[in-house]
């Protein structure tokens, strides 16, 4: 879809060859800056449910402008810009390597501190397959990890999961670095996705949960019955 804003909006089935049902799960950047045309285009998809990973201040600053939907808050407060700003305020020059480290640590923290939010996310998905959009602010980190979890839970091959994840770098319109309190070379890291960011989360799962299977069962509440329902809801029926 050619939307002016959000620019990082896409059908989760679009960039994978696995038989995901189209027109069911969409990932996006925030829906707080929609104009009438973009709102109308998204409404035409039949979106009924919005799952919002943004923190309190983010939601207050840009409330969802998509009418006639049910919005569920799954708040994960942003930390990376705040951490980098604190380093800069201490008088130390920030490097791109600092940005990479804190981006990777953000993904590790998704596993360490926010697994319960992603479990809530799956509980909503298990209720029904009504057309749903899930998003954060840029639709790249909290949303990117959520999308990767869904795809991995549905046994999508990891190269395809990574391809969807990296599509953000092609779709998300760059921000104006001058409007940030951080130097441009740091913003250029923070405003993109890298394979090592997502890998940091997978490594944290392996280190703390003993593998993705245990994380699904014990962290996300996805035992085999729940995974079977996910497949029933979000995969196209197999044609003999």
Descriptive account of the structure:
- Helix 10 (195-209) crosses helix 11.
- This protein is globular.
- Helix 2 links the parallel strand 3 (49-52) and strand 4 (70-73).
- The chain contains 12 helices and 5 strands.
- The mean pLDDT is 93.
- A 5-stranded mixed beta sheet has the order 1-2-5-3-4, covered by helices on one side.
- 50% of the residues lie in helices and 8% in strands.
- It is of the alpha/beta class.
- It starts with 9 loop residues before the first strand and ends in a 6-residue tail after the last helix.
- The longest helix has 18 residues, at 96-113.
List keywords for this structure.
240 residues; alpha/beta; five-stranded mixed beta sheet; 12 helices; 5 strands
Concise account of the structure shown:
This protein is of the alpha/beta class and 240 residues long. The protein has 12 helices and 5 strands. A 5-stranded mixed β-sheet has the order 1-2-5-3-4, with helices on one face.
